[in-house]
């Protein structure tokens, strides 16, 4: 059964620029269902991050509508938006955005602290998430001591630990070499299959594009074309 | 809240040196403020103890005309000792004191003095009155150290005094300084000399009369005595409370400066970290914090400095202040010149109430100072914070 996770209609996003306005998204219509492994592809400035931020409830549409997991982003209060992110969304950033002074364990544990899990539940869940990304031997290290690939795996574990419905990944491989890129992409692909989590990327990295099962090409704030990759059973 | 405390603790301990520098500065303020407050309450205690031992004991009866601030009342403020008090006096639990205005001529200079007559055999007040029990041609007299220094008088020295007798005519006689005492109580020393009671009664032709009566027992029910008014211990120590209150205003300015220095360190850290930690703030928001919660987290982080400072301060402050309370704090300048009842060595007193209230005050102020710059977070755009682009 496929269920709508994201539903975008006539989405326009304008930013104030100098005296006037700059339109970063010029009317987007998109639909995403549960379990998709999709990517927004396009050159720099095409609006990938802008769209991802709106879907992630970090920003709001100027006009049009973005319904994420049943909530219309433009209509949520700050508190409701925070609640949506806390319970249902996972973020993976290009620059990892780990908490540098916290250990790997504490970084991954963070989203669970906000969700009021007990200490023993948290421990179990963090352990499991670190197993998914293959980092169980680094639980007590701190991010500055880790390689880029390891950092991004911690970030994936942090995004996945609460088993969110939707994971948004903005250029997750931009700072990684080919080996590490493939490693984390395989990890995410596996999690997508096993947990049926919806993944939405923003990227212009060929390596990432190779893994996507749905490719949405953005150009100048518009959807240029879409491609589906036939799923191999 | 629990989560914020846990995260704040992780952030603080993770930040290392910067945190500890702030904590040490703050702990220093803590200890110094506590020390000064301890000195103040030690002073209070010492001043009251000295005043009690040297001057007021358990309270007094004043002759109705007597007004310590008006020396002209002295010539009228004397009356025979009320017979109903004779027993208490005989038991050594009450001491009569006769007073008159006079002048003293040390090295040919003239200075007016208060002449007090006190029984040589009394032991109620700490005054070394037994030194008045000396048979000499001159009148034996004892004086305070402040007075002795001012007039350059020494034990064994003779000096002339002059006074008016009942008829208003001047009379003069030599006195012999038999002892000089040091009491820390200006009101028991400044501008006064003590003679044997009987001598003064004779000098003034007022046998059996007194101006005030000092008693030992402050608890006893006291009925009114004809011609005298009762002054309880509380009334008599009120002036000390008053004096300490004014001193406290001056101290308050010093606390304020100390606190300000410590708070500046916290404020600076907060402003800097809000700027430097934009990405982190963005990350908190992406992970489901509201901006208000991030403000809360930063405020708790700032406030936690003061909690850590209290712990660190306790670590070195406890032995230090304990040592001070035990061995006292000797002031580097001659305190008898101050004109206030203060001992050369003060023993600070640190009550639990003092420690708790000081700690709470510092924690409260730190929290406010931490909250102030953190409010800026509430205005941040999360997407810009995530990019670290806010100036
Ligand atoms: N807050 C903002 N204020 C003004 N203009 C903005 C803002 N955010 C984005 N833009 C503009 O919107 C356009 C799209 O930006 P966006 O970051 O979405 O691009 P992108 O596709 O993610 O590019 P890149 O591949 O470089 O990350 C850009 O021209 C950018 O300058
Ligand atoms: Mg981008």
TrEMBL record, chain B:
Pfam families: FtsX (PF02687). It is found in: Cell membrane. Residues 253-382 form the ABC3 transporter permease C-terminal domain. The keyword Iron-sulfur does not apply. The keyword Cell membrane applies. Its main location: membrane. The chain crosses the membrane at residues 20-39, 253-275, 345-372. It is a multi-pass membrane protein. One of its GO terms (biological process) is lipoprotein localization to outer membrane. Keywords: Cell membrane, Membrane, Transmembrane, Transmembrane helix. InterPro entries: ABC3_permease_C (IPR003838), Lipoprotein-release_system (IPR051447). GO terms for cellular component: plasma membrane protein complex. It comes from the Bacteria. PANTHER family: LIPOPROTEIN-RELEASING SYSTEM TRANSMEMBRANE PROTEIN LOLE. Belongs to the ABC-4 integral membrane protein family. LolC/E subfamily. This is ABC3 transporter permease C-terminal domain-containing protein. It comes from Geofilum rubicundum JCM 15548. The lineage of its organism: Bacteria, Pseudomonadati, Bacteroidota, Bacteroidia, Marinilabiliales.
């Amino acid at each position: 059964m496929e269920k709508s996770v994201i539903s975008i209609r006539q989405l326009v996003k304008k930013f104030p620029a100098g005296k006037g306005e700059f339109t970063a998204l010029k009317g987007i219509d998109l639909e995403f269902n549960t379990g998709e492994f999709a990517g927004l592809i396009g050159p720099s400035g095409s609006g990938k991050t802008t769209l991802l931020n709106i879907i992630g409830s970090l920003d709001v549409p100027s006009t049009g509508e973005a319904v994420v997991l049943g909530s219309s982003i433009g209509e949520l209060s700050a508190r409701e938006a925070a609640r949506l992110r806390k319970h249902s969304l996972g973020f993976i950033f290009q620059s990892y955005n780990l908490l540098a002074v916290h250990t790997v364990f504490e970084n991954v544990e963070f989203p669970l602290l906000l969700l009021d899990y007990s200490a023993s539940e948290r421990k179990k869940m963090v352990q499991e998430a670190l197993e998914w990304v293959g980092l169980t031997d680094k639980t007590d290290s701190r991010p500055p001591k880790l390689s880029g690939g390891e950092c991004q795996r911690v970030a994936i574990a942090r995004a996945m630990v609460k088993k969110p419905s939707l994971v948004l990944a903005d250029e997750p491989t931009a700072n990684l070499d080919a080996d590490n890129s493939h490693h984390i992409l395989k990890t995410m692909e596996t999690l997508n299959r096993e947990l049926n989590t919806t993944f939405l990327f923003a990227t212009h990295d060929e390596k990432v594009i190779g893994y996507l099962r749905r490719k949405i090409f953005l150009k100048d704030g518009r959807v240029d074309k879409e491609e589906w990759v036939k799923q191999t059973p | 809240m629990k989560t914020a405390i846990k995260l704040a603790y992780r952030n603080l301990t993770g930040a290392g040196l910067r945190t500890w520098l702030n904590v040490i500065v703050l702990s220093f303020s803590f200890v110094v403020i506590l020390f000064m407050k301890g000195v103040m309450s030690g002073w209070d205690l010492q001043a009251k103890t000295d005043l009690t031992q040297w001057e007021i004991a358990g309270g007094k009866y004043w002759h109705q005309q007597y007004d310590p601030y008006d020396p002209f009342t002295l010539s009228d403020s004397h009356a025979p000792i009320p017979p109903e008090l004779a027993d208490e006096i005989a038991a050594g639990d009450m001491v009569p004191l006769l007073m008159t205005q006079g002048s003293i001529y040390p090295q040919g200079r003239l200075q007016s003095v208060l002449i007090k007559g006190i029984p040589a055999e009394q032991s109620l007040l700490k005054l070394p009155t037994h030194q008045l029990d000396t048979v000499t041609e001159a009148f034996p007299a004892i004086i305070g150290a402040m007075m002795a220094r001012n007039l350059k008088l020494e034990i064994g020295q003779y000096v002339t005094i002059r006074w008016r007798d009942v008829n208003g005519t001047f009379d003069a006689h030599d006195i012999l300084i038999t002892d000089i005492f040091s009491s820390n109580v200006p009101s028991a020393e400044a501008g006064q000399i003590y003679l044997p009671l009987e001598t003064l009664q004779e000098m003034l032709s007022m046998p059996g009369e007194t101006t005030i009566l000092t008693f030992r027992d402050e608890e006893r029910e006291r009925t009114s005595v004809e011609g005298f008014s009762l002054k309880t211990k509380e009334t008599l120590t009120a002036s000390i409370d008053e004096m300490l209150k004014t001193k406290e205003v001056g101290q308050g300015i010093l606390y304020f400066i100390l606190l300000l220095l410590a708070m500046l360190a916290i404020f600076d850290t907060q402003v800097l970290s809000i700027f430097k930690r934009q990405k982190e703030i963005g990350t908190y928001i992406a992970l489901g914090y509201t901006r208000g919660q991030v403000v809360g987290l930063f405020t708790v982080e700032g406030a936690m400095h003061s909690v850590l400072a209290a712990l660190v301060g306790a670590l070195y402050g406890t032995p230090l202040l304990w040592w001070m309370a035990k061995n006292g704090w000797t002031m580097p300048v001659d305190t008898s010149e101050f004109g206030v009842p203060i001992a050369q060595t003060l023993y600070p007193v640190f009550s639990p109430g003092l420690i708790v209230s000081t700690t709470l005050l510092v924690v409260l102020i730190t929290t406010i100072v931490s909250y102030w710059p953190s409010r800026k977070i509430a205005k941040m755009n999360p997407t810009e914070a995530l990019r670290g682009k806010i100036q």
